[in-house]
Amino acid sequence: MARAWMRRERIVPIQPELRAILEPHRQAEGRLFAGREHNPSRGFRAFLERCGVTPAGRSAHSLRHSFAGLMTATGVPTALV
User: Fold this and answer.
1) What residues contact 73, with CB distance under 8 A and at least 6 apart?
2) I need a labelling partner for 50 at 20 to 30 A (CA). Which of 5, 20, 39, 41 fits?
């Protein structure tokens, strides 16, 4: 059984330009990677493959770290990140 924190939905705001690039890859339920009952790691790998990116060494978790790093680098307070 999945832990409670694993069932939470994570929404990350993105810029309109990136949204336009990602829109064709969005799944029927509106998500890029996976639905609640799917494995997000597997969904992320499939997403990368659909985009023509080699998934080796990449993960949805590393994407979260990149997002947080970019936010702090642009001056967003750590408490908001």
Assistant:
1) none
2) 5
